[in-house]
Amino acid sequence: MSRDASRGHKSSGKAGRRRGRALAGDSGLPTYEPDIALRSIEGHLTRTGAQVMAWYRLAAQAWSFRSDSQREALIRQIAAQLGELQGRWLHLRVTTRPYPVHMWAESFDHNALGRMPDVAGALGWDAFLEGEQRHLMGLSMSDKEVFLGIEVSGRRMLDRWVERAAPVLGRVAPAAVRAETAALSSEVGHLDALVAGSGLDAVPASSDDIAWLMHRSCALGLPAPRTLSVVPGGSHRWETEDLAAFTDGVEMHQEPYAPTVRVVGRLRAQTVSRNVAVMSLGLMDGLRIPEVDDPWMQHSDRLPFPVEWSARMYIRRPEDVAGELQRQMGKVRSQIRHYTHDHDLDPPMSLARQADRVLEVEDELTSGLTQLNTRLYGWWRVAVSGKDEAEAISRAQQVLDVYRPKVQVEHPEAQYRYAREFIPGEPLASTAYRRRGSVMWAAAAVPAATASVGDRRGIMIGETCTATRRPVAWDPWLAQEVRRASGLTAVVGGLGSGKSFLTGLITYKTLRAGARWTLLDPSGPLAQLTRLPELAPFSRHINLLRADPGILNPYRVVAEPRPEHFADEEDPERAWRRERSLAAATRRRLVLDVLTGLLPYDVSRIPHTRIVLLRAVREVGGSPDRHPGQVIDVLRRHARDGEEHAGIVADFLEERRELPQAALLFPDTTREDPWQADRDYRLTVLTMQGMTLPRPGSPREEWTDSEALAVELLNLASWLTQRTIYDADRNLRKGVALDETHFLSQVPTGKVLIDRLARDSRKFNVRALFASQLAGDLLRVSGFASLVNAVFVGRTDDEEAQAEALRLLKVPTGVGYEQMLGTLSPRPRHDDRPDDTPRQFIFADGHGGVEKIRIDLEAPHLEHVREALDTNPDASRVAVRGVPAATTPEAVRAPDEPAPPQPIVFARPAGRVVDLGSDLGDELPTVLDADDDFHTLDDPEGLLDGGPAGASAPRADAPRLRGDEHLDLLGDVDTDDLEAGGLDVEDLDAGVIDANAGAGGAREGEGRVRAAGEAVR
Fold first, then answer.
1. Which secondary-structure segment (H or E) carries 215?
2. What CA–CA distance (Å, rounded) separates 1014 from 1008?
3. Where does this protein have compositionally biased stretches of type Basic residues (predicted)?
C-alpha cells in the first residue's frame, strides 16, 4: 500500500542548547512540511519550491446553436491567447460544483416581491419553496468550473531561502518577504490582461475559488463539501501551515497494480471513501471541429456523473519547434520516396495526408510561425469516481465508450501518482501518453463550453438536455427591471408540443412569487388553475361566451390612459392628452375592422362598404363610452339621407347582431358596466369554449360566418386581456398570455395590439406570452422579431416553419438546426400508453443563451398542478358512459356552465367562477344625438392630425401623433377605385364626402351589394 499522499508529516527540530540562562524559544517546535508540493497561496498566485503560477477562472462559453463561423472564431481567439504564452507551463483543471440550490432559493425568496398570502389547508409558500429545493437537490446536477494555471516564473535559490526564513525576516525585514511578489506584479498584470480577452474570457481566481479547487483536488472523487475553509485572517494568503486544511483528514491508497486508487476522507464527521479511476488521452484521429464534431473535452459532459480533467501543457517557442518540424518533414518525404521510387507504388492515403500537412507546415516555417501555428505538447488526464471499485471501473468504461472510435483513452497502472497530478503544483506522474499538436488543436477542446441559459434568481422551468445537463431558472421580469429590454415572449410549436403546459407552469410559479396574470385561453384548459386551492381565492375564470352583453364592446376593450402613468414624462399632461387621442383613434380603427369582419366576405370587399362604415365610425367618435350599436344607428340615418348602401350595410350588421355570440359586442344600456367590478385578482383566465376558429392558413373567403365572428371575438378578447395591464400599478409585475395569436396577425388591429404590448411591456413591467403554431404568423407583424425578448420553440415538423422558427430564435439557418426542431419531444411509435413525457423546447433567454431544455413539473409537491394542466383525454375519468363520475347536479353541469339563477350576492367566495353577468358597475351613457358633431366627441382638443373639414385648427401647443403612430382608418381600401368614382381620398379620411360625387360608382356598387345580399340571404 502506498503511504498517505495528503497527510503532512512533521520533523522534530533539535532542542536548542542552553547557553547560560537563554530561554527555550520556538526553536524547539516541530516544522510542518506538507506532502504536497505547494508551499503558499497569495491571492491567485500559488508557490511551490520551484515555480510560481497564476490561476484564472474561465468564463462559460456557449456552443449550442451557433454558426460554424462563430465557433471557429471562438477557437481562433482561444488559440491566439494560448500562442502568446510561449515558453510557459500551463495547468488546466476542469472540476464541478454542485448546483447551489440554497443560493438559488435565497435569491428566489428575496425576489418574490408581493407574493400572495397562504391559504389554510393548501400548499403554502414555505412548503412550495422547500419542495422546489428538495426536487432540485434530487436531480444531482452541477456546474462546470474551469481553472487555468499559468507559470509566471521559475523560483531562484534566493526566493526559496527567503521563504524558509520568512518567520524571522517577517519581523526584521518584512519588505524582503514581499520582494518576490513585487517583482512579479508587472508580469502578473500582463497575464491578467492577456487572458481577459475574447476567447478565454478569464478573470483572476478569487481566494474562495482557489480553496474550492484545492479541496476538489486533494480530496479527488469525494463528495463536495458544503462549507469551505475560510481564508485565514482575511488576508487572501495561505501560509505553509495553513495548507493542512486541504490535506488533513484525506488519504489516498492504492494496492499494487490496482485499477483504481482509494480516497478516504471525513465529511461532516463521517468517514467517506471513494474509488477513483484515472485515465489518459491517447492517440486521436483527425476531428472536424466545428463542422462535424463537438469540442473533444465536451464529450465527457454527456455522461450522467461528474468528470474531472487535469491537463499539463507546455507552449513551445518557435526556435524549439523549427528543427523538430524539419526532421518530421524529412521522415515523411523518405517514406514517400520509398514507395514511389523504390517500389513504384502509390503511397497510402494516410501518408499522402501527412505529406500535404508537411507542405502546410513548411509554408508556415518559411512565412514565419504565428500565434495560431505555435506548437505545444501536453498530457490530458481524466478521473471518475465510484462508491466502490466496480462502479469506478464501470464509469471509466463509459468514458472510453463516449470517446471511441476517434479518440483512444488509456487506463494506466500508476493510479496513485496519476491522481496526484490533479493537485496544483504536483509534478507529472509520467511522460507517457504525451500529445503533440498546435495551439489550434488544443483550443478546439473548448474546455469551458457548456450550456448557459436562464438566470439564478427566477422560477425553475426545467433543465438543459444537450451535452451539458444544468437546471434552468428564468425570471420573466429581469429583462424589464434590470436590462431595460422588452417583455415580449413567443411560444411556438405544433399541436401537442406543450405550449399550454409551459404557459401554465410559468403562470403558476410566478403567481406564487407575487406576479399577476391575465390569460386568454380560448379552449379553456388553463382555467383549471383558478380551481387550485392555493390560487382559488385570488382567481377568477370568465367564459366570455356566457358573459354579459357588451363584455367585448370594442370601445371598452381599449384602455383609457391614466394620468399617473405619465408622471415621469417631461410634460405629463401633454403626454397624457396625446395618449388619450391615440387611444380614441385606436378604438375607431378597431370598431371599423370588427364591423367589417362581421359582414359577409363578398360585401366587405366592396370599396363602398368601407366608405360608409368609415363615415359612421368617425361620426360616432372614439370615446370609451360608445358602442357599435350607435354606428348602426348612424348608418340608418345616412340611409334616410339618401345613402342607400349605408342602409344595406346596416341590415347586414343588424342580422349579425341577432346572433347569440355577437351580442357580446353590443351592450345592454339598461344594465351596469361589467368592468367596474373588483379588480384585485391575481389571476384572471378568459376562455371562449365552444368557439369555432378557422383552420390556420385558410383564406378569408373560405371562412364561414361563425368562423369569421370567432376571429373578431378573439381579436377583441385579446384587446380586453391587455386592458388589465393599464388598470394596475405600472410597477407591479404583470403577465399576459395570449393563445391562438396566429389569427391576430391576420387583422390590422391584431398587429397593432402585438406592437403595443411589445412597446409597453417595459414601461408597465409586463411579460407578454404570445402562443402560436407557426413562427411565421408572428414574424409577419412588423418589428416583432426585433422587439421579441425570449422565445420558446417546441416540436415543429414543417420545413418552412422550422426555418421561420430559427429566425425567431436568431439562430443560424441552413446549418442543420432545422432537423433538430423535428426531433424535439420524441414520441414512442410502438407504445399504446399515453405520451406523458415532459416536452422539450429550444429556449432563447433574450440575453444570448440558447439551449434545448426539458420542461420539468415532476416534483411531488406539484402533483396537483400537473394533474390540473393535463389536457390529455381519459375515458377512465368517467364512471358511466356519457355521465361524469360525480352525481350531484353541480358536477353534471359543465365546469364553466352558469348555475341556475340565484339572487345576487356581493361577497366573493373563494375560488368561485366569475360570471360578469352578475357584476355591477356604472351605467353606460345614453346613445349620442345623431346631430352631434363627431369631432367634438372624438377629438375635442384637436390633438389628431387631419381633423374634419371645417373644424377649428388645433392649438399650436397641442401634441400631435408621430408618423409611426398614425392609424389609417382607410386600411385596405383601394384608393384607385375611390378616385375612379370621383371621391377625394383626403376628404374621405377627414370624414367629408360629397353626396353627389361618384354617383355612378355608388350606383354600381349598390347593384353589387344587392346581388351579394340576395345571395347571402
1. helix 207-218
2. 10
3. 8-21
Query: Which of 445, 466, 493 is where one domain is finished?
Result: 445
Domain end among 641, 660, 679: 660
- Give tens-digit pLDDT for 234-291: 557 888 888 888 888 899 998 888 999 999 998 777 899 999 999 999 998 878 888 8
Q: Which three cell numbers stand for residue 875?
A: 375515458
**Integer CA distances (angstroms), 301 to 58, 64, 94, 399, in order:** 17, 13, 11, 10
CA distance 873 to 457: 36
Report strand pairing: 270-284 vs 308-315.
unpaired
pLDDT band for position 370 (50/70/90)?
low
Q: What percent of the chain has pLDDT over 70?
A: 76
Q: Which helix (H) or strand (E) holds 492?
A: strand 488-492
Across the range 649-659, mean pLDDT stands at: 87
Report cis status (omega within 30 of 0) of the bond before 405.
yes
d(CA 639, CA 634): 9
The region of weakest confidence among 306-310, 724-728, 798-802 is 724-728
Q: Say which DSSP state 458 is in.
A: S
**What CA–CA distance (Å, rounded) separates 74 from 611?**
60
> CA 341, CA 333: separation in Å to the nearest integer?
11
Identity of the highest mean pLDDT range in 41-45, 788-792, 978-982: 788-792
Three-class HEC string of 260-317: CEEEEEEECCEEEEEEEEEEEEEEECCCCCCCCCCCCCHHHHHCCCCCEEEEEEEECC
Q: What's the pLDDT score for residue 671?
A: 66
Q: Give the pLDDT confidence score for residue 933 in this predicted structure.
A: 37
Same domain, 91 and 136: yes
Instruction: Give 148's contacts (C-beta < 8 A, 6+ positions apart).
Output: 55, 56, 58, 90, 91, 92, 93, 195, 200, 202
Work out the average pLDDT over 200-218. 92
Q: Where are the beta strands (DSSP E) in 561-609?
A: none
For residue 590, what are the domain limits?
Answer: 565-660
- pTM of the predicted model, to two decimals? 0.77
Instruction: Tell me the DSSP string of 60-101.
Output: PB--TT--HHHHHHHHHHHHHHHHTTTT-EEEEEEEEEE--H
Residue 401: inside a domain: yes
136 vs 118: CA distance, rounded Å: 23
Integer Cα distance of 377 and 206 in angstroms: 29
Pair 408, 440 in one domain: yes
Q: How many distinct structural domains can be found in the chain?
A: 3
Is the CB of residue 458 less than 8 Å from the CB of residue 111?
Answer: yes
Task: Collapse the DSSP code of 777 into the 3-class scheme (helix H, G, I; strand E, B; otherwise coil) and give the result.
Answer: helix
Residue 356 within any structural domain of the chain? yes
| pLDDT confidence tier of residue 832, bands split at 50, 70 and 90 | low
Same domain assignment for residues 54 and 173: yes
Cβ contact 739:500 at 8 Å? yes
Task: Establish whether the linkage from the previous residue to 290 is cis, with ω within 30° of 0.
Answer: yes
For residue 265, give the C-alpha cell. Answer: 476522507
| Distance (Å, whole) CA 390 – CA 397 | 11
Residue 692 lies in a domain: no
**Interval 845-897: pLDDT, tens:** 988 889 999 999 889 999 999 999 886 666 665 544 444 444 333 333 333 33
CA dist 296 to 201, 288, 289, 408, 443, Å?
20, 10, 9, 12, 10
Instruction: Tell me if 951 sits within 8 A of 942, measured CB to CB.
Output: yes
Q: What per-residue confidence (pLDDT) applies to 18?
A: 46
pLDDT higher than 80, residue 432: yes
Check: CB of residue 572 under 8 Å from CB of residue 690: no
CA distances in angstroms from 747 to 36, 737, 770, listed in the order given: 73, 19, 16
Q: pLDDT digits over 117-170, tens only?
A: 999 999 999 999 999 999 998 887 888 999 999 999 765 554 554 555 555 445
Q: Which residues contact 54 (CB under 8 A, 6 or more apart)?
A: 44, 45, 149, 150, 152, 188, 191, 192, 204
